[in-house]
User: Fold these one by one.
Assistant:
Number 1:
Amino acid sequence: ESSTQTTPAAVRYLRMLNGVTSCQPVFLPPVVPVKMAATVISARWIAPIEPEASKVLENHAVAIDGDGIIVEILSHDAAVEKYPEAKLIRLGSHILTPGFVNAHTHTGLSLLKGKADDQPLMEWLTQTIWPAEMAFIAEESFCEDGARLAVSEMIRGGTTCFNDMYWFVDSAARVAVESGIRAVIGMIMIHFPSSYAANEDEYLSKGHKTRNEFGHFKNIHFAYSPHAPYTVPDATLQMLGSLSQENNLPLHIHLHETSDECLHSLMLKKDSSSCHMSTHASRPVANFERLGLLNSRLCAAHMVHLNEEEIELCARRSVSVVHCPNSNMKLVSWLIYSSILIKNNFFFFRSLGERILPSRKARQGWGECRDRNG
């Protein structure tokens, strides 16, 4: 009996179409499901980042699927025709933009915002903030309530992602999970004991414990967050730098925030609270270069006191700088010269920091954008 007689006609037909004459399996290409939109947001203007950030689209719409993922951007008419069953939201006089990223926050401290105006940074920290913290942060609920207030205000102001650094890191993580906002949770490190941890080992172990607990959530990411060069010694910074590389996590730190930090570190003026904890007489950025910490994983907040050599070096090392204009002005720290950083191709305007602290009374991303140029 021939194979032609025993092979079903449909299979013989498929083999013929595919040029197959022997009795081998026929594999058909997989069927790719067409993504459908559950919601269409139509606006007078849309300012996308991709594929061309400088181009503003007029009378366009964003199609979003049921999981909140953008399917595509297309003209309003095309969206209405293609997705007739989707929920349509019309924003006839609005500009639709991607969410803001607040790249430097201390959410737990939002309950103290507005406390003590017009003080230089170290006076503000040592005489106002640190004593107030010691009075309140013994209760973890303080940090969680502060994070909940901060996140509520961020969402209301259009911020959809924040990069946090504060005590009781699991508090901010829980609030981020509850609200759905994206967050980079900083695993705080400081050389001194606190209500949160007694020593550096405990700071690190508690940070890793929180990462293990919340790391599976898609909207939660982590960073190592040593507070500053004047509160964390070189050996600890190097250890965190190694962990940052090993786990491919950012290193988020205050750096070059005041002129005293730079000058007193260069002089190695150990009687100054602004002097870095290194035994090397150098400006902090130069010391970070010596320690191998200037790289693309470094997220440096403030950076308002940079000379030309430091700007060129940080740009060459792909360091990310977070500009906090309102905080810098309020604490008399100075301003970043934006045009110089842009000229040097700095990783700079990817984000702005509002530094959610008593140093920043509001949480409005547009205000930070208006004040960004020094």
Number 2:
Amino acid sequence: RRMRDSMHNTAFLFAVSILYLGVANAFLSAPKFPVARRMSLPAAQGKSMLSLRSTSFSNGRRDTTRTSRVQMAVAQGGMDQIVGLKMPASVTKSWEVHKFGGASLADAGLYRTVGDLLVTESLGRGDGAVPTMAIVSAMSGTTDQLIGVVNAALKDPAEAKKLLDVAVDKQISTLKELAGPEIVAPIERNIRKDADDIMGVLQALKLLRTIPAVTLELITGFGEVWSAQTLNGYLKAKGVPCDWIDAREILIVESTLSGLGEKGSAATAGVNPLWEETSLRMQRWWLERAAANGLHGLDYSRAAPVITVTGFVASTADGAPTTLKR
């Protein structure tokens, strides 16, 4: 249950920032492999349905299960300050929000599986396309690799660089299996620049002889940033209307916790989203970047955007990088 709750942290926060939630009904199901968590949020007089599904793949067939309904009281903590997205008039379907953990993104084949699932979901069921959002974790193993990079930097910066190169090369080689050079090139530049920035930060650790919590959170969060761009690259290669969001630019929280938290503990009691600021930033992204990329002008009876969002990461009100903990 704790692992399941942890997987939904970012998905839930982004779902809430898209549409106002009064009291939601949640359908929770045990994770299978690969896992797609779906949240469907139709707005209805200040209330919404939050539908979560677990999808597994077996022998090329997709099986979706749904279990018992539980009530979730979410009309607390400033929820009345949320600003919903202003969607084009042609939109007839509400957003669906999915969550994919790292095990579902372990290699290029699984990125394809996830991407194809999202495309299928976005096409709807014959009665209009469905705006779709996917919250993604880092590629399987990347977060632990980046933790190893930070730990190594305390004693041997050269070893830290070698470990970082392994993580970077794995992500880029996966990306190259999913898209052509014209799509890969700008994403590869982003990833390699991130790696340079990481090494710049790590140079100070040997002098400090300690690892500040904010440093660990900053560096480990790059796994989600790379993963989101990788999945978006595959969707772009398929000609799907798509874009990606770095949640650090939109999801604003106040946190009384430090560090990453114990893996699988879902220790989020001290991480509180600033709903008004987050929803305003989400609205701004939609009105500016999404519009500039043509997502407002789609024929939503036939196609809807697929937006990939980084899981795990967020920012504080003063702009410091943080995480939603593990």
